[in-house]
Amino acid sequence: MITHATGIPISNLAQDGALIQIEWQDGHRSTFHSLWLRDNCPMPTSRHPNGQRILESARIPAGIQPQSAALRDGQIEIIWAPDGHLSRYDPVWLRAHCPCDEHRESRRRHPILWSADLTGALPEASYPRVAGRPATLRRWLAHIRDYGFAILHDVPVQSGMVTKVVELFGYVRETNYGRLFDVRAVADPTNLAYTGLALSNHTDNPYRDPVPTLQLLHCLASSVSGGENTLVDGFQVAAYLRQHHPEPFDRLTRTPLQFQYADMETELAAETPMIRLDSRGQVSGIRVNNRSLQPLDLPLAEIEPFYDAYRTFAGLLADPRFQVRIRLEPGDLICFDNERVLHGRTGYESSGIRHLQGCYADRDGLLSRLAVLSRS
Ligand code: NM2
Ligand code: OGA
Ligand code: ZN
Q: Does ligand 2 lie within 6 Å of residue 199's CB atom?
């Protein structure tokens, strides 16, 4: 969010019915509505000192207008009709909440979309520094927010470190796989992750609602040939699909799919499209996991167009020009946004040892920690 830490002086203040117009000394004009201003009154009868609103917004009378609006001691003072309530606003705060299109757009979060060429400049850091220096932790967390993933090197090669890393910024999301899980080839695997098979780029646990929003994988051993990881920016690929293949894109945003996982103790199921849009129509989440996609429950006429769309999307997700390839060595850890960045691995032989430990966590907790670390 853009906040204007240094105040921009006001050169003119005017009222036009329910609208308050401010002209700033840099020439920008902001227009605020009386309903919005009354609702955001910062005075103690409207807001608790903890920042939470006491005023009931829905009880503000329709048609509310200022009785007077003036600049006094560098603050904007409004007396409201008819009750005479006094509101005082800090111009710095008002400027930071300017409702013009440009300022509203600048307050949105903008992910940095990436492709294969990120390989030379991967977002990475070293564990001892991230654990010891708040400013380094803040940078590492900001990488995960902006790129959807970041790498950590020099993590002690010890069991359980993956949850210690989560504890630097939030809480472990425990699941049916445990607080943490071991990814290695075992006899009678309950999940393809626990084999040496290649895994095409996917997101984890699409059969859960809510889905775990962060995943971490920590490498404890990798003496095998193969078993390299791939990462793909699902938002980048979805943007490409939207631009070049609008019909398949649209279909993947509105076709409900069933995902499921079952073993002896568990039976999880969720319904979701592969590409989720938010209330602004922006791509906000990807769920792709071929292993756990259930038989399509669609009218006959939708079967062929769905497979056409899926083939196109999956083809792009597997395309090397979108992929970053990483060989994790013992002590390396990757943390990624499980609703944005897809991960995969090449197959490996059972002759050596490959052992990753993984766990899940929540993105909102990470963003909270980052916001607190970013307070000036
Ligand atoms: N593991 C690694 O979501 C999935 O089913 C992928 C998850 C087993 C926890 C694998
Ligand atoms: C997983 C997974 C990748 C790997 O555990 O979810 O995708 O590198 N593992 O083994
Ligand atoms: Zn996975």
A: yes
